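Protein in question quoted for reference:
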Amino acid sequence: MNTFAAAIVAIVAATGVDAFAPATTARTTSTTTSLNSHFSSIETKLFNKQTLLKALKDMGIKSQALKTDGEQIEARGYQGETIMADIVIQQQNNHDVAFRSNGETYELVTDLQFWQQSMPVDAFMEKVNQRYAVNNLIDTSGEDGFNVDNVLTASDGTVTLEMSRYSFN
């Protein structure tokens, strides 16, 4: 029995880095969804709702989501405007941050003027993408015969997964 060990840095995962990164640049668009006047939609390549919820939880962000896929909850915006979303992060200023499925991925939808998170939008999405990638690798590594042995987070935020797989020759 030979032991095969691998250390994988989550951001440089061999399973396709861009699967977890924001679309080319985090750009604001309203072409994929119909939004009220103050809401902005930022495209992502986040596909799995449960993995996204785990990423937010890892970041210490409390979010709301209904357990049944397809059911949405209301997110609050400027002057009482609302949208329906799959995941809502309530802010103290009554202008929520939300993730909403466009049928393929989850878009970040919010009024950027009232952003009240502990980091700017770009840094927030970078951290969400990192935690999403880590959780996705942990959740899917067993399909390729790997066991996650250790997850290490360096002081600079780099995450390293130590994995092993046994091969029988």
In short: The longest helix spans residues 121-140. The two ends are 7 Å apart (CA to CA).
